[in-house]
Each structure stands twice: as structure tokens, then as C-alpha cells.
Amino acid sequence: MKNMKRMLSFVIAISMLLAACSGPSSEEQDAKQLVTDYKKAMLEVKDYREIKLDDDSFYTDKENKIKAFFTEKGSKVLVNREFMLYIVNAARNKHNLEMGEVQLRSMKEESDVYDYEYLIPVRVKDEAGKLLEELEYKGQVKLTKENGRLLIDREWSRPMKPLLW
User: Fold this and answer.
1) Whether 122 contacts 160, CB under 8 Å
2) Residue 144 included in any domain
3) By residue range, what is the domain housing residue 112?
4) Is this model's pTM higher than 0.90 or not?
5) Which N-terminal stretch is annotated as signal sequence (predicted)?
């Protein structure tokens, strides 16, 4: 009986160890959370009626929210405000944008720098919540660890098709 308990404990311990080793790394989990939070702040439109296209502070507030995810060097890229096209388009067409789960694929890892490719399903819905279209938003991101925190140093994304829904 004692041997059976030991054997069972050993099997459980090995199973737990294998499960822990087979999951995504801590850096990968942090990277996925960072990209998810960033893209939600950038793309998601829960209610298009809350978007104030005529108010300049809307754009500035959105940009400041997004800058928090970037290194100082990376945040300088945001000057062009290209990311606002999706939100403006959603508001003008009375559509909401909903993100699906971010899928990351590690491309390169060096010290405290991580390169990932991402794919994000984006659902375009009308004001009643009816799904109009599901699009894929693809890109790559370079993450850097600064003061123990992952930040975006650079991002490349491909436009979602079609830009006009």
C-alpha cells in the first residue's frame, strides 16, 4: 500500500512537471498579454456612438493610452495616427469592432528582446451586435524588457481588408 502511494505521488509529480514545462514561457505569456492589451486599446470599438470624431481630445487621449505600451523610441512612430483609421471608419459606418484571441508565434529571442508575429481576428458588428464580417489583423512586434517590464519597441502591421466596410 505504501509503495502504491509513493508510485501515485511520483506519477502526479511527474505529470505536474511535464504540464508546467510544456506550457508557454512566462515571457510569452507576458508578450501575449501586452499585445492583447495594446491592440484592444488601439482597435476595439465597443460602442461607436462613444467616439467623438469632432473632438481633438479624443485622438490625443487615444494616442496617450497607446503610448503607454511603447518604449520612448517606439512611441515616436505613433505620430502618423494611422491606427485611428479603423476607429474613425467604424464610427462613420456605425459599426463596432471586437477582437478575438491574439495568436503569437515567436520569431526570435535575444537577451531582453523578443520578436513575435501576431494574428488577431477582428469581428465587425452592426449596432445590434450582428456579425457583418470577420477580418484578420496580422503583424509583427519587437518587444524589449525595460525595468523588468515588457514594452513595444517596434511594430509592423498589415492593413485589414477591406478598410471600408
Assistant:
1) yes
2) yes
3) 25-157
4) no
5) 1-27
